[in-house]
Amino acid sequence: MPPARRFVSLGRDFELPISVKDTDQPANLNGMEGVAMDKKEDASISREEKQFGKLRPSRRDFLKGMGVSTAAAAMATVVVPQLEAETAPLVKGIREAVIVTEINGKKYRLAVKSHWTLLDVLRREIGLTGTKKTCDRSSCGACTVIMDGKAVFACSLLAVEADQRKITTIEALSEGETLHPIQAAFIREDAYQCGFCTPGMIMSTKALLDSNPRASMAEIKEALSGNICRCAAYPKITKAVLSLAQKA
User: Fold this and answer.
1) Which of 142, 156, 132, 112 is nearest to 224 (CA)?
2) Residue 159 vs residue 84, higher pLDDT
3) Would you state the CATH architecture of domain 96-172?
4) Domain ranges of the chain
5) Is 215 left (phi over 0), alpha (psi -120 to 50) or beta?
């Protein structure tokens, strides 16, 4: 029985018979040797087709199949644009509601859906993108805002829970070009690197110092324990907050 060349394609493997001569010396597909080899293989396959039926594809069929499968894979990876959340049809169980809330001293009357989070509303509906969306599961603190005087994670609060509440975001701290003392302290002590966690850190700091202006280092660490800095700038962050507490 002649040696066989094994191929794997589209989850199936099969063998193409080749001659001993072809095993010893690879064919030159650009010359006559390649043509002769194709004829020999076609003749061998034809003999098998007569005996067993067409169970094994020819080289040409194999190459054609590879071309078709490549094109099909490329078509399958085309990205189909999705509907925006606000225009998508309501899923069974999801309801709409109207809330009235105060954000950074301004009253808002908002139509929200029952599954929207406060973070979604702040960023998408109002355009306050200083509140960052990172983990979206209450584990990093980048979305921290102040609601009724307490630091909360906006990603874990439903928008309907903000009804009749007062919310403060990072955008409310500075007045034009004048920075809030907390922001100035973070810059002075170089208490940031990439800056992505900084808004949440500052809002947690504000909630702490508003209620406890002379916080100790232990109290500072406790208040910031829900905020993660992946750049590990914690020593400078706590130094910046402590410098404010010592001046109070």
Assistant:
1) 142
2) 159
3) Roll (3.10)
4) 4-67, 96-172, 181-247
5) beta
